[in-house]
């Protein structure tokens, strides 16, 4: 690790929240402490990140932050050399190293700097130049050669001793061309630390360089007929500002409170989500994040099996995150958090506006009209969105953590960006493993499988998960108990052990999962306080059992795993993911063990794999319209009744109000009619004298 | 039919579009023609509605509306008496009756007037008064008795000879109380035409009248702690107006064109949806509507099996539709269409603002950042929404037909309103058939199953449906063809005959359906031009085979049926739904026949049943937060490439622009930061000199 050893004094006066990401100062301090003990390191910094407080200590502190001992502030530090890495923990409060473990046979994440340097390496490699020549690209055009460097996945020839990238090759005739229309058919393998090409995979049958561009930049669109001219602006204004408050990184909005963390790997981490239920602060989730992803590609031809990116564990959803722009990525009134990481030199770098927090109108929250007299209530909803967007080479993942006024929490991911592409020879058959989305361009089938890590605290730390399937009642049609055959019910199956919890989605029963506190019974329904996971985009892992992806992505074999909570069990494909062989499978399969551990009324973690299978089409090219995936966490038997009843209605008329021609009218006065004067009409009988019987503030 | 016979002259100069709903004048004219021939009718008018033009005639006219013969304007007229109905067709162009068929043993829809009169009938019935007395309600309090009148479903005792309603009974202590907290345990049966109670179903074990209210009106919320005080307004303004045009009822927006119809039964009907693909007007769907619904309840105890409302076929999604209010049901700049129906007297009545058309921002349409230089494109999306909301007694259905700029069509339904409730005795067990959502209030399990009728014209009238399942490739792990086990593909199964098309959803394969034009091959992908149906909320019909609901709701037995197009096959549970026994099953099961008809490259109709199964919870009470269901129709292999590329980006910087510090910046300038001055940041390297290299208009 280059640079001088500095002695920083840890700025104790700052008192960061224990969940806060490390500040630039803390990153510098952690590095300084390591340098002080170990001197000039020969290695690259790979990560300097918050080592999250032990849960037990943190829970104790959260009960009384002014009096209980503050959890120790710790940094985890990873440095990496040619054939080793050090996994360290630094105690920032006491300025000492708690752990400095040398590991071999493991590879930590590939960093942006690693990726960004690869193009230079391949452009000057003689064998790459030779291969380009075979495709008709002369040596003087090597500046037109580009590559998307991916981790190698796993290559049996090299194992995990050398730190490798595979360079997915492209060409640009012009600097502004989209390179994905010009894939090259060979694949150099680059030694990240030695900074050299160590092999090139060349297919037996060659595919010529494509000649036809498909671009999306303004000059290309102008040449193709120009932009649509009939779109008029929609402005979103919040003249009185936002309805949320931010204290440090703790956000309060509509009875929700939560801490917005962020790390280089998972990106956004939401901690200690609670709901203020009429003065009673009720815990919901201790921690919530996207913990891992895998994107297996479905072409079995060599060497495409290596394309199965673990975008979070191999590259980092934080490291790859975008700087967001006001009025662009999000509209309205916005609060941003920056993200701070260490670069390879161990110096702090900042990504501005990494996390966006904003509100949106969400349409009708609830409505009812009495058909007798047209008395009505209409309440419009609002949502709060905590979002980030990260770019994984070709793809963009837009991640939206959405809070609703009815206490529902939603995770929406929009997939956009550009398809990974490979070359096709004229007349070549895709064999069904991909689609020719553009002449000579094969976009392979793939899945995006995300692992949502939910650490629940539904009214307390001891929770239990039940599988819920819709089921027909017993008794055949004509029987006394089910004469007309219409009996049906919610069949609930408790997951008592880890083994029982390992389960798949079942669309035929509209399967959901209840995360329950079995110690809290609803006074009316007599059912357990719970949050229900409603997730409908749950494809099974298509790579086969025993194969490379199946072995490496153990978490993705099933939709649900529930484990007993343990500190540091954060990364379901293992802590260091690149170049793992999957023998043994790391992360979740290790923690599952023999599956006999009790998860009944314990501190548990639920791992949910969801996503989609993508069979590309030309409409996805050259840049994909965003495709959304969404799941919900809905309170069930948790609140006494609809918790959003106290949201100010837009319009209310009661039966007695209708008689007296009185209504409460808080309609948005900015709305208007499109074309003509037309009387706005409530569906109420007769004229309304608007009367407020209560005050808004 | 009461009232004087009038002789109207049909206003030919009006030239309504052949898909337009009947105007008030046309309704009056149709009735006048019938009265002229049949004199004063003794019967009630049940429906006067557009008899839609024959498809062949309509398609011919659409090719050249100025020169081809305009399809004849026809009204369908239904009148109903005590034991008969007349089903008629009136030729409005020539002022004559084309059909006047007397039918017996069938019951047409229950009308709002029928429902609205029922409360008066039960309040004065001695046996109802007696039953109320048993529950402690004195005769002088009968004005506090309410009922939600439902069609009877089917009751073996009465069959279909008498026109019946079942009165689901409630009580209100105060006029403004929500009655659903005070269900009464008995159920009067009302003869609609005789206007009298003919029976009362009384349970063996009585349930006392509830005493605890759960209200949501302002005074109740004020008493319960008041409204949230921290919500600040979000305004949506469109200073330059809307981006759509309306010509009569034909809407044009972002290359889409379609006609917005509306009828008393289905509500919104979208006709002749086309897409202007760079000057080529390409047909997508000839007709699209919600054709039927069934809401079976899962409690097998007598007489709850009768609760399985066919909201469209028994009551009418048009008849029950709400008048929408500006800045309330929808925000922004709105265009409304009114709806005109005939009342029981045959006179036209208008529901103002029955259909809302408006635009919304829809977040990121597509985005990509090049990790090399942070050159980026961000384009925000827009959607156009055609919506209506209808109130089916307790429930509200908010129906949104949504058009996206990437040529996707989405149907979203939000369920809100109030749960149907029944009385519970203290200590009574729900037996799992329902949930005690409030003390003494049992909300029964139920399903909402909607039937989407899609009449496609994907690049022409001859289309074919394929089932698409994700599937593992052949070859075991280690085999030459699938060494690493990662092969997967889209398995497509053609539905050649009606029988083959009758199919269910399969979540384990992420099943979708492609509606293809097998005569149109994509020049790049070599696959058929298609629209893909992506629908993930597809519960199976839980009432059992052979039971009452299964028999009556034939369409709901499977997720998909494809039939060959035939004029007048519009209503999949039959044309006249109330009191059908299901023996034989009407509608779709009749049209399926022996299932041998070819649907391969034919003019076809796809019937898709989707929805959700609802196991109530206290959070749904006393009024339900809106629960959304959504499905997509996405173009696949239809366009040459992403059809939204010509939407003006919000921000673009090209690699060459980044070098020259130039970018195109069309960010919304209304957006601002929430709390402090913070420099907006694009994620571009260095300062940007904003330059437009093209013009917006």
Count every helix of chain A, treating DSSP H or I runs of 4 or more residues as helices: 10
Number of beta-strand segments of chain A: 35
Strand portion of chain A, in percent? 35-45%
- Largest sheet features of chain A: 22 strands, mixed
Mean pLDDT of chain A, to the nearest integer, reads 94
Low-confidence stretches of chain A: 1-8, 682-687, 693-697
Q: Could you tell me which chain pair has the largest interface and how many residues each side has? A: A-B, 208 and 208 residues
- Report the radius of gyration of chain A as a whole number of Å: 28 Å
Shape of chain A: globular
Distance separating the two termini of chain A:
58 Å
What's the helix and strand layout?
2 copies of one chain form a homodimer.
Chain A: H1 24-38, E1 44-51, H2 55-63, E2 74-80, E3 85-91, E4 96-103, H3 112-123, H4 126-134, E5 145-151, E6 164-171, E7 187-191, E8 196-201, H5 218-223, E9 235-237, E10 245-247, E11 250-253, E12 256-263, E13 267-277, E14 280-296, E15 308-309, H6 311-315, E16 333-342, E17 348-369, E18 376-392, E19 395-404, E20 409-417, E21 421-423, E22 434-438, E23 441-444, E24 446-456, E25 462-472, E26 488-494, H7 498-501, E27 512-521, E28 528-535, H8 548-552, E29 560-564, H9 588-592, E30 602-614, E31 624-636, E32 651-653, H10 655-659, E33 662-665, E34 672-673, E35 689-690
Parallel strand pairs in A: 33-35
Antiparallel strand pairs in A: 1-2, 2-3, 3-4, 5-6, 6-7, 7-8, 10-11, 11-12, 12-13, 13-14, 14-15, 14-24, 16-17, 17-18, 18-19, 18-32, 19-20, 20-31, 21-23, 22-23, 24-30, 25-26, 25-27, 25-30, 27-28, 28-31, 29-30, 32-33
């Amino acid at each position: 690790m280059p640079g001088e050893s500095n002695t920083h004094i840890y700025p104790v006066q700052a008192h960061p929240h224990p969940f806060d990401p490390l500040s630039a100062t803390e990153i510098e301090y952690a590095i300084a402490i390591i340098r002080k003990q170990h001197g000039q390191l020969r290695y690259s910094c790979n990560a300097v990140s918050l080592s999250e407080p032990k849960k037990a200590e943190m829970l104790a502190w959260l009960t009384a932050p002014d009096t209980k001992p503050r959890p120790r502030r710790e940094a985890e530090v990873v440095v990496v050399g040619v054939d080793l890495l050090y996994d360290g923990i630094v105690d920032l409060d006491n300025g000492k190293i708690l752990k400095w473990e040398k590991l071999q046979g493991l590879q930590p994440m590939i960093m942006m700097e690693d990726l960004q340097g690869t193009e230079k390496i391949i452009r000057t490699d003689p064998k790459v130049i030779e291969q380009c020549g075979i495709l008709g690209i002369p040596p003087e055009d090597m500046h037109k050669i580009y590559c998307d460097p991916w981790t190698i996945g796993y290559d049996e020839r090299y194992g995990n001793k050398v730190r490798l990238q595979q360079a997915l090759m492209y060409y640009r005739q012009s600097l502004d061309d989209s390179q994905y229309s010009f894939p090259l058919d060979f694949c150099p393998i680059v030694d990240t630390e030695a900074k050299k090409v160590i092999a090139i995979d060349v297919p037996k049958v060659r595919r010529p360089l494509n000649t036809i561009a498909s671009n999306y930049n303004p000059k290309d669109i102008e040449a193709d007929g120009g932009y649509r001219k009939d779109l008029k602006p929609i402005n979103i204004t919040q003249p009185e500002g936002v309805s949320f408050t931010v204290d440090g990184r703790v956000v309060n909005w509509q009875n929700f409170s939560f801490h917005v963390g962020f790390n280089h790997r998972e990106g956004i981490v939401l901690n200690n989500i609670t709901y203020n239920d009429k003065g009673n602060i009720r815990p919901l989730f201790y921690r919530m994040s996207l913990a891992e992803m895998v994107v297996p590609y479905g072409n079995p031809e060599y060497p495409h099996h290596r394309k199965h990116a673990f975008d979070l564990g191999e590259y980092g959803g934080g490291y790859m995150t975008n700087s967001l722009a006001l009025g662009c990525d999000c509209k309205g009134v916005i609060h941003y958090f920056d993200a701070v990481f260490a670069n390879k030199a161990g110096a702090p770098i900042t990504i501005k506006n990494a996390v966006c927090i904003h509100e949106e109108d969400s349409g009708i929250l609830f409505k009812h009209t009495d058909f007798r007299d047209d008395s009505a209530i209409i309440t419009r909803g609002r949502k709060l969105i905590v979002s980030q967007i990260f770019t994984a080479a070709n793809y963009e993942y837009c991640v939206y953590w959405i809070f609703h006024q009815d206490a529902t929490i939603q995770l929406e991911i929009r997939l956009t960006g550009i398809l990974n592409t490979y070359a096709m020879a004229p007349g070549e058959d895709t064999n069904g493993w991909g689609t020719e989305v553009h002449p000579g361009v094969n976009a392979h089938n793939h899945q995006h499988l995300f692992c949502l890590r939910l650490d629940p605290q539904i009214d307390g730390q001891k929770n239990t998960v039940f599988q819920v399937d819709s089921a027909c009642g017993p008794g055949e049609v004509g029987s006394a108990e089910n004469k007309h055959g219409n009996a049906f019910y919610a069949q609930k199956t408790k997951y008592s052990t880890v083994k029982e919890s390992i389960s798949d989605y079942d669309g035929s029963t509209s399967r959901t999962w209840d995360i329950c506190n079995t110690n809290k019974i609803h006074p009316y329904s007599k059912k357990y306080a719970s949050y229900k996971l409603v997730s409908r985009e749950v494809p099974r892992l298509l790579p086969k059992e025993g194969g490379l992806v199946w072995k490496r992505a153990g978490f993705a074999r099933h939709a649900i795993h529930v484990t007993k909570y343990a500190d540091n069990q954060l990364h379901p494909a293992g802590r260091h993911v690149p170049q793992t062989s999957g023998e043994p499978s790391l992360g979740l399969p290790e923690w599952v063990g023999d599956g006999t551990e009790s998860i009944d009324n314990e501190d548990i973690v639920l791992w949910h794999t969801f996503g989609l299978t993508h069979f590309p089409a030309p409409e996805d090219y050259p840049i994909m319209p965003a495709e959304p995936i969404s799941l919900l966490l809905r309170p069930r038997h948790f609140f006494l009744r609809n918790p959003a009843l106290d949201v100010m209605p837009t319009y209310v008329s009661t039966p007695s109000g209708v008689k007296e021609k009185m209504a409460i009218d808080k309609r948005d006065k900015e709305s208007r009619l499109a074309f003509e004067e037309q009387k706005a009409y409530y569906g109420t009988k007769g004229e309304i004298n608007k009367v407020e019987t209560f005050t808004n503030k």
